[in-house]
Please model this.
Amino acid sequence: MNSVMLVTGGAGFIGSNFVHEWFRQHPEGHVVVLDALTYAGHRESLAGLEGRPGFQFIHGDIADMACVSAILAEHQPAALVNFAAESHVDRSIHGPGDFIRTNVNGTFTLLEAARSYWQGLSASAQAAFRFLHVSTDEVYGSLSADDAPFAETHPYQPNSPYSASKAASDHLVRAWFHTYGLPVLTTNCSNNYGPFHYPEKLIPLVILNALAGRPLPIYGNGSNVRDWLFVTDHCAAIRRVLAAGVPGETYNVGGWNEKTNLEVVHTICARLDALHPREDGKSYAEQIQFVTDRPGHDQRYAIDASKLARELGWKPEETFETGIEKTVHWYLEHQDWVRAVTGGAFDAWLKNHYK
Ligand code: NAD
Ligand code: DAU
Model:
């Protein structure tokens, strides 16, 4: 594909993986990344792409109308994929303001800038244009153990400031399709893991804390359930929806792979025990520590991704076992990246949040 794609939030975890994967699939591709480089955005995650033909990085804010409009006018993208967001539930509990600003106001600004740009395109370019909004399963709320997984028709019942802000953004995206005809697509995905995952999130936090000899903090009793998807499978799903999704539709993306947090942490410890044993010969599982629960902690997420399989033929390639193996290897081999994205502000977050 030679047409230009604008990727917002492309210096974050999923966005950077998406851009790397895009160039793997489309070596002649043309991607412009717009990212505000918040604490979660790092150019180191795009390091291998800097200077490559077809790749351009722009430091800017999705809530800045002048900036977004100028980028659209200059680069004339055929698609916009929006990963830019505040993404960490715990941070949204400490301070929800940034979540409203970026996830709600920022998405609104992107939609308005895209609408104005799109309305000025030729009829054929209008028909081909796509605005793909990357969202989360957390908008659907929490499930009990025996509830069916979330389908696209499940009511929105967000419980945290983060999920409420994402739900609001999804509603805006939907409205811009119904009211203005902007060709939007929305994906609602479960928990991702893999390379370039910022270590405030459970899986990378546990890997790095284990290696550093620190406690492995498990909220409550560790029985909360998440559905885990290796990040490159999510990227493939987004590419598929971009290529063949029906404008105005939403698509759930998931790994059919539910695990309790305790299972996840034990799996990581077992892989680390095998690949990088502790000097004293004991298991990393000895470092597990149960800590105060997250307020309003959703008990269970599970995704019914059958629409995406049935209509667009997507299914995940990695199992949890293969994905975790790759992830643990990646962190062991990329301590330089870890050092670049941690330190000062990250240590302050750990100290403040985990006391
Ligand atoms: P992340 O926090 O790792 O990255 C977010 C990126 O957005 C960062 O590079 C950050 O600098 C950038 N950003 C933040 N505010 C911005 C702004 N105002 N303007 C421009 N850039 C800004 O997040 P992630 O885990 O990669 O998630 C990406 C998207 O996918 C989010 O919308 C998130 O809600 C969604 N999602 C994440 C997961 C997951 O498990 N991580 C699962 C489903 C959906
Ligand atoms: O479901 C998709 C969502 O997954 C995305 O929309 C979010 O952006 C992403 O951050 C993730 O949200 P979670 O809250 O599920 O991810 P997190 O890694 O923060 O937590 C995963 C589970 O582990 C959750 O039940 C809380 C628990 N946990 C988390 C941390 C950071 C712990 O037990 N201890 C911890 O220290």
